[in-house]
Amino acid sequence: MSKRILLKLLAISALGSTMALPLAARADTPLKILVGFPPGGSADTIARIVADGMKDDFSAIVVENRPGAAGRIALTALKNSPPDGHTVIILPNGPMVLFPHLYKSLPYDPTRDFTPISELARFQFGVVSGPAADAGSIAELVAKAKADPDSATYGSAGTGTVPHLLGTMFAKAAGIQMRHIPFQGSAPANTALLGGHIRYKFDVVAETAELHRTGKVRILAVTGPKRDPQVPDVPTLREAGVDMQATAWFAMYAPAGLPEAVRQRLETAVNAALQRSATRDKLVKLGFEPVGEGSAALAAQQKADLELWGRTIKDAGIPALD
């Protein structure tokens, strides 16, 4: 082999290695995790727990908060980021499966503009009975609502929120009527429940478990596919005789057009983090179920939930927002 040919082959090899750097998402590259909510909230907390679990796979990981428009600002930033594996987002399911049905237009398309990486954590809700309801089971709630339809009032943090829509789903599945009372946030709704101004509330189990344990409210059933370890005495809705199931989740996404090698690298890193006992213990302590099932499972979950919440929002008659 001539010296000139050898030098040319070496040059081509070096060029190929340089071009492969961004595709390999190598450990000497940093990772930026966008969060569309302020520090201290659930999305931010989960992002920092997961980032800590992934720290050995990257030279540096930065969690960057870009709050505003319920996560839409951060999602737009991700959409406009290069698909090189250096920028991802961690967010709840709402912007990906609820917002397409709640808003007339969005600055992103939840299926075309992003690459699913993995579902991180899942949580469920409880059907909560307050002091004014005097219902000790789902069967009693249904019987009371059928006897006096006006009595089945339930509160939420506002129209179009997941608890509001869960009430719509539950009423349809149980064959009853329930009257929704929107509040300006979850805290005022809790105050109204404890004060006897509303009878029921659909709430995250982690937010209500202690009130249930102390007897101030009663969680009649949970909305997920299995009992929640925070309240193991509480049946699922299906166990209680109502054919309904719904959960919420947090997940990681990257921009669309991500090379397959980069997607695999990110999926492997985040799922390995979710298998570490330190990461899992922190999430479970906060009331979340660690998942880590990969991009295909997340894409399937997103598709199913887009259809589920689309039907629910249509049934609720919620007009599209500007």
From TrEMBL:
The keyword tRNA processing does not apply. Keywords: Signal. Residues 1-27 form the signal peptide. InterPro entries: BUG, Bug_dom1. It holds the Pfam family TctC. Belongs to the UPF0065 (bug) family. This is Tripartite tricarboxylate transporter substrate binding protein.
